[in-house]
DNA sequence: ACAGTTTCCCGTAAATGC
DNA sequence: TGCATTTACGGGAAACTG
C-alpha cells in the first residue's frame, strides 16, 4: 500500500437545509458569524483506517499569497475541534462532518492602507483540512484544500462576491489555484462571460438567455475593440453586474414562471421596442427590464393605433415591493388607462408578437385575487397565492450556501486531478442546459 | 453625615440612539443579545465620594420569588464589569454609565414542566446595582434595584411583554414590588385599563382615544358584570391586546398624521357605521380599523345614494404592506369604482360628518406621487415621500428601549419614595395629554 | 406531536474604521 | 471627510425542547 503526498479537493455547494442535492457548484461565499457545514470524505476506500484519521480544519494554512497583500484579513473558526473519519454506511467511505462551523475575524491583521488593500470581495481564501497519522512506520501529513472562499461580513457584499466567483471560475478551469487573481484580474472574452451570464438566468429562472437578449447585453457590456470584458467595467466602475444581479433577483422572487415560459423579452432597448411594436396590432405589448433601476424592475411597452400613427407607450417600472403585493399577471390583467369622459380601458391585448395576454398568463391568474380588487363588500382577496411559492431554483447564486465539501484524498494522480477539474465544469448548468434545451 | 439602608429606584426608558430624552416611561423589556445602556446616578449630591463608589450590576440578586417559581430563567450580563461613580459636570451628581450591556441566558436553570412555569413574558426580573464602601469606620452595602424587567428572546414576544408591563403598572402604583404578580394576576377596572390604552394611542399617534372610541372598546373588552377586565381575556384567550397592538403599530408606521388630526374614527362597529352614514350626504365616508385582521388594517365605508335607498359600502381593508407602498391619503384620492359602461368614479367625497376629503387630506398629498400612477411615458412616481418620514412618536411601546436608569440613593425616606412613585406616573403621557389637549 | 421558546439569518440602517 | 466595511437588530421562519 503505497501512499501519497498530493491531494485534491472538490467543493460542493449544496442547497440549504435538508435537500442534500449533489449538484456541484462553484467556489464559496461564506459570511462571518453564519453557520456552515463541511463534509470531508476520503476518496480512497480504506475502511481499515476507520477512527485512525483525525482531521482538523485550518483557515488559510500556508497561504503565501496572503502575506503579499497588505491588510489581508485573518479569520478563525468559532469552534476549533478535530473530527475522526468514520465509515459512511451507504458507500463505505471514510467521512466526517463539521457542523456548526462559522468564521470570525481574528485580530492579528496587518492593516494596510486603503490603497494597497484588495476589496474584501476580491480577497480569496482557502480552508484546508489536515490530518496526520502513522502507518507501518511511516508518518504522513495529509492536506486537502477547498476551492477559493470569499469571506463577507454582510449580505450587501454578496453581489460583489458572486461576481468574483464567476470571474474566478471562468479563468481558472484547469490552471493552478491563484489566490491573487484579483490583484490584476485578466479580462474575459464575451464568449466566456455570456456563457456564465446565461447560466445565471438558467439557475434563477430555468431558462437561458437567447441570442437577441445576449446581443443587447453584449452591446451594453463590451466596449473593448477586441471584444474583451474588463473586470473593472463589469463589477466596479460601470458595475453592470449589480444591475444584472438585481434583475436575476427579481426573476427569482417574482417572475420565474413568466421567465421560464419565455414571456419576458427583458433585454430590449427602447429603440428596438419602438421598432418591434409599431408594426404590430394595436395593443401589442412586450415586457422589458428597466435599464436605470439598480435593484431590478420590469415594465411593459405597448403600441397604440387609436390616433392614426402608431404610438408606443411605456409604463413606469414595477419593482420587487410592488410585485410582492401584486403578481405581474394580475397587474397586466388589471392595468387600465383613463380615456376620455372617465372611461377606462386596458391597452394591453397581445403579448409580442401576437399571443393574446390571457393565453400567455391565464394559468397564473388566481381566481380570488383576480376579482376586481378592493371593491365594496369586503371582497376577500388572497394575494399572491401563486407567486409566494414559485418553484425554487435548485442552488441559486443569491443563497448563502452551506459548504459541503468532499475532500478527496488519493495517490499522486494527475489524471484524476484533470478528471475532477473537468467534472467541476461539466456538471455545471451549461451542460445540463445543453442537454435539456437542445 | 448619617447614611441609610433603604434604597430607591426609578427607571427611565429612553429613545434609542442619541436622543437622550428624559421622558420617563414604564418598566423595561430587554431582549437577550441586544445591547442596552444603564446610567446609574447617586441621588445625594456628594462629590466628595468621587471615585470611591464602585458599582456592580447583578441580575436577579436575592430574588426569593424566582425560587418559588419552577423553571424561572436565569440570566447573566455578557460583560461583568464594575464602574466607578464619577462627577457629572452639569449637575454635579455622581454617575456612571454601563454601555454595551446585554443579557444571555445562563445554564443553571431549574427546568420546570410546562404546566408549572410562568410564560416568559410574565416572568418579572430585576437588575440590582450594588456598591460597598468604607467611610468613617462604617462599612456599607448599598443596593438599588430597577423596576421589573421582562426578558424576551425574540421580537415576536414584545407584544405580550408590553401587555405585562401595562398590567403591572396599573396594579403597582404604590405597592411593594411584586415579581409574582402574574402567578395570579388581579383584574383591572375598565377605568384603569381605558386610561392605559388611551396613553398608548397618544404615544403612537399623538392623540388619545375619545369617548366614542373607548365605548366601542369597552363593549369589546369588558364581559364581566362588575366592569372588570381579566388578564386572561386581555392578553391570553381572547387576546384583545394583540389586535389593539396591531392597530397601534399601523398608526405609528403609516397613520400618525391622520390619527393626530382625528380623521380616523377607527373604532366603530359595522352597525354604527351604517347608522351614521346612511343619514349623510352621498359620498360621505369614514375610516375604521378592521376588526378581524390581527396585524392591523384600515378600511373605509361610504354611503351611496345613487340607487334611491342609501347603501353603505365597505372596502377590503388595507394592511401595512399596502400602506407602505401607497399612503392612505393617496389611496383615498385615487380610489375609483367601475360604473356602467366602463366609467370610473371615486365614491369618496366627504369625510364624516361633512368635511371634503381634500380639505382633510390635501396637505398630505404628494405632488409627484399624486399624478395618475403608472401612466404611460414613464411618469416618475416618487412614492411615499411624505409617509416614509412621519414624525416619530417620542418613546413608543414598540421600540425595544435602551435602559437608562437613575439609581437614586437616599436616606430612609418614605416621603421621597412616595414622591418618586408618583413622579413615575405623573410624567406619563396622561399628564402631558391633559395639559396639552385640555 | 405540539406549543412555547429560542435561534437563525436576510436585509436595511447605522456605526465604525481608515 | 468620504468610502469601505462591519455591526446592529427587526422581522419572519426554522429549529429546538421539553
TrEMBL record, chains A, B:
Please state what the protein is called.
Signal transducer and activator of transcription
Q: What is its main location?
A: cytoplasm
**Record's compositionally biased regions (Pro residues):** 390-399
Gene name for this UniProt entry: LOC115026732
Localisation per UniProt entry: Cytoplasm; Nucleus
**Gene Ontology cellular component terms for the protein in this record:** cytoplasm; nucleus
Instruction: Please provide the record's keywords in A-Z order.
Output: Activator, Coiled coil, Cytoplasm, DNA-binding, Nucleus, Phosphoprotein, SH2 domain, Transcription, Transcription regulation
Q: Which family does it belong to?
A: Belongs to the transcription factor STAT family.
The source organism is Cottoperca gobio
Q: Name one GO biological process term.
A: immune response
Q: Name the domain of life this protein comes from.
A: Eukaryota
* SH2 domain residues: 259-338
Q: Where is this region: Disordered?
A: 376-404
Amino acid at each position: 500500500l503505497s501512499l501519497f503526498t498530493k491531494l485534491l479537493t472538490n467543493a460542493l455547494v449544496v442547497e440549504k437545509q435538508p435537500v442534500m442535492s449533489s449538484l456541484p457548484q462553484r467556489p464559496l461565499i461564506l459570511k462571518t458569524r453564519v453557520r456552515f457545514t463541511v463534509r470531508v470524505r476520503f476518496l480512497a476506500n480504506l475502511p481499515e483506517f476507520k477512527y485512525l484519521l483525525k482531521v482538523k480544519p485550518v483557515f488559510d494554512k500556508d497561504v503565501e499569497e496572503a502575506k503579499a497583500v497588505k491588510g489581508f484579513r485573518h479569520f478563525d473558526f468559532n469552534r476549533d475541534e478535530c473530527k475522526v473519519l468514520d465509515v459512511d454506511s451507504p458507500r463505505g467511505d471514510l467521512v466526517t462532518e463539521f457542523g456548526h462551523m462559522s468564521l470570525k475575524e481574528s485580530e492579528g491583521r496587518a492593516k494596510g492602507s486603503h490603497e494597497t488593500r484588495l476589496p474584501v470581495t476580491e480577497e480569496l481564501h482557502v480552508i484546508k483540512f489536515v490530518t496526520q497519522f502513522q502507518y507501518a512506520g511511516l508518518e504522513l501529513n495529509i492536506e486537502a484544500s477547498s476551492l477559493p472562499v470569499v469571506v463577507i461580513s454582510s449580505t450587501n457584499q454578496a453581489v460583489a462576491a458572486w461576481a468574483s466567483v464567476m470571474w474566478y471560475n471562468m479563468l481558472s478551469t484547469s490552471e493552478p489555484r491563484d489566490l491573487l487573481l484579483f490583484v490584476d484580474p485578466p479580462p474575459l472574452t464575451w464568449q466566456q462571460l455570456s456563457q456564465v451570464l446565461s447560466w445565471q438566468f438558467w439557475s434563477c429562472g430555468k431558462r437561458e438567455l437567447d441570442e437577441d437578449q445576449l446581443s443587447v447585453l453584449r452591446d451594453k457590456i463590451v466596449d473593448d475593440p477586441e471584444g474583451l470584458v474588463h473586470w473593472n467595467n463589469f463589477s466596479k466602475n460601470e458595475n453592470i453586474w449589480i444591475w444584472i444581479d438585481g434583475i436575476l433577483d427579481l426573476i427569482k422572487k417574482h417572475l420565474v414562471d413568466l421567465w421560464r415560459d419565455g414571456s419576458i423579452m427583458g433585454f430590449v432597448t427602447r429603440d428596438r421596442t419602438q421598432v418591434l411594436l409599431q408594426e404590430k396590432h394595436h395593443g401589442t405589448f412586450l415586457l422589458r427590464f428597466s435599464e436605470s433601476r439598480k435593484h431590478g424592475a420590469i415594465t411593459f411597452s405597448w403600441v397604440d393605433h387609436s390616433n392614426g400613427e402608431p404610438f408606443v407607450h411605456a409604463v413606469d417600472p414595477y419593482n420587487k415591493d410592488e410585485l410582492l403585493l401584486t403578481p405581474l399577471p394580475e397587474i397586466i390583467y388589471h392595468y387600465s388607462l383613463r380615456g376620455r369622459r372617465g372611461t377606462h380601458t386596458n391597452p394591453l391585448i397581445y403579448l409580442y408578437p401576437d399571443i393574446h395576454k390571457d393565453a400567455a398568463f391565464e394559468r397564473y391568474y388566481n381566481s380570488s385575487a383576480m376579482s376586481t380588487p378592493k371593491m365594496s363588500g369586503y371582497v376577500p382577496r388572497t394575494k399572491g397565492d401563486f407567486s409566494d411559492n414559485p418553484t425554487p431554483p435548485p442552488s441559486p447564486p443569491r443563497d448563502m450556501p452551506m459548504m459541503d465539501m468532499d475532500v478527496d484524498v488519493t495517490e499522486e494522480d494527475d489524471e484524476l486531478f484533470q478528471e475532477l477539474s473537468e467534472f467541476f465544469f461539466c456538471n455545471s448548468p451549461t451542460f445540463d442546459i445543453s442537454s435539456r434545451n437542445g
